[in-house]
Design a protein that fits this description.
The structure is a single chain. By secondary structure, this protein is an alpha/beta fold. The protein contains eight helices and five strands; from the N terminus they run H-H-E-E-H-E-H-E-H-H-E-H-H. It has a domain of 157 residues: Cytidine Deaminase, domain 2. Helices cover 43% and strands 12% of the residues. A five-stranded mixed sheet has the order 2-1-3-4-5. Helix 1 packs antiparallel against helix 8. The longest helix has 21 residues. Bound molecules: 2-acetamido-2-deoxy-beta-D-glucopyranose (6 copies). The site of one 2-acetamido-2-deoxy-beta-D-glucopyranose has 2 residues, from loops. One 2-acetamido-2-deoxy-beta-D-glucopyranose binds next to loops.
Length: 239
């Protein structure tokens, strides 16, 4: 009787484990071909070009004591707007840096289609901002620190969904139906260490979370899987 119970639950766990590995978020929608869209690896001149603009948002962040700073740059190299998260100042927590610069560019210059522009941001865009970026038709996004680093390494509250993942679902959005290219980790050696704080030990900070992060290469999760399989086999043998 107990053996059957163990067998039943072990099998249930195994089935659950196998199902949880599948990448079906909603059975009604098909999963994009590429999730996430790979970050474009840039080198040489293109990298130094982006580093120049990233340095400007970093400098702005340091000057203002801000974390999230974004700018919008025309493809001819003109930076049309730079600003920071104004959530607290404006008492409107949707005023993330990306939203602020998109709305400013619209108010100042009447731009609503950003296909000729690149958005720079010190930190990878959240779901809300990446959504706004998709709907505004940006062709390129360049960020410093990743959501993964902010959440897993710095214990900062986040929706831990990569901007590339959301972007992969952006059917018909982006620059004339092309989803934006996302270039991550530009000058992250600076943004990771000099712009963003580590909240892991800041017990009173409103940003602090206990991140639930797994290392896909850590054998301990595959160990659970092997253990369950073994348990089922052993129970079968002795039943
Ligand atoms: C570059 O683009 C900006 C924004 O559209 C425009 O104001 C500026 O005149 C352009 N500069 C050049 C040199 O074309
Ligand atoms: C934005 O402009 C580009 C280039 O002119 C065009 O291909 C695209 O369709 C426009 N997007 C929207 C949503 O109008
Ligand atoms: C960060 O990386 C850039 C490019 O790889 C390098 O030029 C710069 O010196 C580095 N800065 C720091 C503070 O490590
Ligand atoms: C943060 O906490 C960890 C362990 O909880 C400790 O090892 C580390 O030294 C602490 N770091 C700081 C900056 O206090
Ligand atoms: C896991 O290991 C593989 C092979 O060594 C490597 O290609 C991959 O980047 C690793 N993944 C992570 C998230 O570290
Ligand atoms: C693997 O994951 C376990 C449990 O989450 C953790 O305790 C351990 O430190 C991880 N090992 C490595 C090498 O990251």
């Amino acid at each position: 009787m107990n053996k059957y119970l163990v067998l039943f639950f072990a099998t249930l766990c195994l089935v659950g484990k196998v199902l949880s590995c599948e990448n079906g978020m909603n059975p009604y929608y098909s999963t994009p071909e590429q999730v996430p869209v790979p970050l474009t690896a840039v080198t040489g001149d293109e990298l130094s070009y982006h580093q120049g603009y990233m340095q400007q948002v970093i400098d702005f962040a340091k000057e203002k004591g801000a974390l999230f700073v974004a700018s919008i740059v025309h493809k001819n190299g003109t930076q049309i707007v730079i600003d920071m998260n104004l959530g607290r100042q404006m008492k409107d927590l949707t005023q993330h840096a990306e939203i602020v610069v998109i709305q400013k560019a619209n108010a100042l210059y009447g731009i609503s289609n950003f296909s000729d522009y690149t958005l720079y941001t010190t930190g990878e865009s959240c779901l809300m901002c990446q959504g706004a970026i998709l709907y505004s038709g940006f062709s390129k996004v360049v960020y410093g620190t990743s959501i993964k680093t902010l959440y897993c390494d710095k214990c900062m509250s986040q929706v831990p969904i990569d901007s590339t993942f959301l972007t992969a679902y952006g059917y018909g959005l982006g620059d004339g139906w092309n989803r934006p290219t996302i270039i991550g980790g530009v000058l992250s050696n600076i943004t990771d260490n000099q712009v963003f704080k580590n909240y892991c030990n800041m017990t009173t900070s409103i940003f602090k979370v206990h991140p639930l992060c797994v290392d896909p290469n850590n054998s301990s999760s595959s160990l659970t899987f092997s253990f369950l399989t073994l348990l089922i086999l052993i129970t079968y043998l002795f039943i």
